[in-house]
UniProtKB/TrEMBL annotation:
Its cofactor is FAD; heme b. Keywords: Detoxification, FAD, Flavoprotein, Heme, Iron, Metal-binding, NAD, NADP, Oxidoreductase, Oxygen transport, Transport. NADP(+) binds at G276, V277, G278, L279, T280, P281. Binds 1 FAD per subunit. Binds 1 heme b (iron(II)-protoporphyrin IX) group per subunit. It holds the Pfam family FAD_binding_6. GO terms for molecular function: nitric oxide dioxygenase NAD(P)H activity. It comes from the Bacteria. Heme b binds at H85. The gene is hmpA. The record marks K84, E396 as: Influences the redox potential of the prosthetic heme and FAD groups. This is Flavohemoprotein. Its EC number is 1.14.12.17. The active site is at Y95, E137. It comes from Mesopusillimonas faecipullorum.
Length: 405
C-alpha cells in the first residue's frame, strides 16, 4: 500500500522523469529484451528503432508520478492503454516481468539517487498501477470474448480479397478461417494483425482500423505502404502485406477494440476530419450511418497530398451525391494534371476549417479526428478557435500523448 511518504517520494521524481525519462525507458527496454527476448514478439520493433515507444513510456511514467495522489485523472489514458494491451494479448503475468526490469532500470540509471526507500515507493506505485490495468483488462477481455463472434488472443483469418485503393493504400478483406462469426464492433475501432517478419526473425503486431462498417461477416483493413525516408524506417509489416500477402494467405488477428468510435445513440451531427490514411475510421463511421439510414447531418472533410494517394474517392462521392444529409470537402496539397475540382477535390492546399466554417462547424456536432499527429494538432486547435467545446472533439491517438501541444 502506498503511504504518504511513498507518494511524496514518487511525486518528487516527476521532474527528473520529465527531463531524463527517455534515457530510463531506453535502458528499460534494452534490459527487458536482453533478459526476456520472447517479449520482442509483443512490441513494435519499428517504434523501438525510432524511439516512439520509449518516448511514450517516458511520458506515461512521468504523468503517473505527477498524478500519483489522484491517478483517476489519468483514466482516459489508462482506457487507451487497456485497449492497446488487450489488442496485443498482454496478460497479468507480463506485469511481473515489466515491474522487475522497470525497478532495476530506475536503480541502474539513477545510481546513488535511487535509495532503497525510493525503489520501495516505486514498487508500491507500480503495483497499484498494475492492479488497476490488470482489472480493467480483465473486464475488456471478458467483454470482447463473450459477445457473439467474440474471441480472446489471436484468431486465424484468411485474406478473402485484396483491393488497391490508391497508389499507397490497399484494402484486405479478412474472413475467419474457422467459419465463425465476426463480432459487431464499434465503427472506428481497430484490430491487431500479426505476421512473421523474416528481417527480424520475429512475429510482429500492428494495429489497423476496421475500415468498413460492422455486419459484413468479415473484417476489412486498409493498409498504407510505409516507404520510409529520413528518420522513419520503411514499414516492415505494411510492405510485407502489400508485396507478399495474397488472397488465400492467413493472418493472426486480435479482436476489435479501441476507445475511439462513433456513438450512434447520440443523434448529434457528425463531422469526420481525416488526413491521409486517417480516413479509414471515418469510412467505417460513414458507412455505418448510411447503412442505418441515419438522417443526422454528416460532414466528411479529408486532406491528402494529391489524387494519386486519395483512397476511396468514388465511394465517398457516391454517398455524398445520393444522400442530402452528407456533404464532403476534400483538400489536395498539390493538384495534378488529371485532378478535377468538384470531382476529385474541392479545395487546394491543406485542410482549412476557417475557410469552410459554414460547412464544417455545426451546432452540437461531434468532431472525429484521425491522421498524422501534426494534422490532428492543427485541426484540434482550429476547432477550439472556432468555438467547438473540447469535449466534442474526439481523436484517434496511438500512444499517451495528447493534442494540446
Amino acid at each position: 500500500m502506498l503511504t504518504p511518504d511513498m507518494i511524496a517520494l514518487v511525486k518528487g521524481t516527476a521532474p527528473v522523469l520529465k527531463t531524463h525519462g527517455e534515457a530510463l525507458t531506453r535502458h528499460f527496454y534494452a534490459r527487458m529484451f536482453q533478459h526476456n527476448p520472447e517479449l520482442k514478439h509483443v512490441f513494435n520493433q519499428g517504434h523501438q528503432h525510432v524511439g516512439q515507444q520509449q518516448q511514450a513510456l517516458a511520458a506515461a511514467v512521468a504523468a503517473y508520478a505527477e498524478n500519483i495522489e489522484d491517478p483517476g485523472v489519468l483514466m482516459p489514458v489508462v482506457e487507451r492503454i487497456v485497449h492497446k494491451h488487450v489488442s496485443l494479448g498482454i496478460r497479468p503475468e507480463h506485469y511481473a516481468i515489466v515491474g522487475k526490469h522497470l525497478l532495476a532500470s530506475i536503480r541502474e540509471v539513477l545510481g546513488e539517487a535511487a535509495s532503497d526507500e525510493l525503489i520501495e515507493a516505486w514498487a508500491a506505485a507500480y503495483g497499484q498501477l498494475a492492479d488497476l490495468l490488470i482489472a480493467e483488462e480483465a473486464r475488456l477481455y471478458s467483454k470482447v470474448s463473450s459477445q457473439p463472434g467474440g474471441w480472446s488472443g489471436w484468431r486465424a483469418f484468411r485474406i478473402d480479397e485484396k483491393v488497391q485503393e490508391s497508389a499507397e493504400i490497399t484494402s484486405f478483406y479478412l474472413a475467419p478461417c474457422d467459419g465463425g462469426e465476426v463480432p459487431a464492433y464499434q465503427p472506428g475501432q481497430y484490430v491487431s494483425v500479426r505476421i512473421y517478419v523474416p528481417q527480424l526473425d520475429l512475429m510482429q503486431p500492428r494495429q489497423y482500423t476496421a475500415s468498413d462498417r460492422p455486419g459484413h461477416g468479415r473484417l476489412r483493413i486498409s493498409v498504407k505502404r510505409e516507404a520510409g525516408g529520413g528518420d522513419a524506417p520503411a514499414g516492415q509489416v505494411s510492405n510485407l502485406l502489400h508485396d507478399q500477402y495474397k488472397v488465400g494467405d492467413v493472418l493472426d488477428v486480435a479482436p476489435p477494440v479501441g476507445d475511439f468510435h462513433l456513438s450512434a445513440e447520440s443523434g448529434r451531427p457528425v463531422v469526420l476530419l481525416s488526413g491521409g490514411v486517417g480516413l479509414t475510421p471515418m469510412i467505417s463511421m460513414l458507412n455505418h450511418l448510411i447503412e442505418k439510414n441515419d438522417e443526422r447531418q454528416i460532414r466528411f472533410i479529408h486532406g491528402c497530398r494529391n489524387g494519386q494517394v486519395h483512397a476511396m474517392k468514388d465511394h465517398v462521392n457516391g454517398i455524398a451525391t445520393t444522400h442530402p444529409n452528407v456533404r464532403k470537402a476534400v483538400f489536395y496539397e498539390h493538384i495534378g494534371p488529371q485532378d478535377k475540382v468538384g470531382q476529385d477535390y474541392d479545395y487546394e492546399g491543406r485542410v482549412d476549417l476557417e475557410a469552410i466554417r459554414e460547412q464544417a462547424i455545426l451546432p452540437e456536432a461531434d468532431y472525429f479526428l484521425c491522421g498524422p499527429m501534426p494534422f490532428m494538432q492543427a485541426q484540434y486547435h482550429s476547432l477550439k478557435a472556432l468555438g467547438v467545446p473540447v469535449e466534442r472533439i474526439h481523436a484517434e491517438v496511438f500512444g499517451t500523448g495528447g493534442l494540446g501541444a
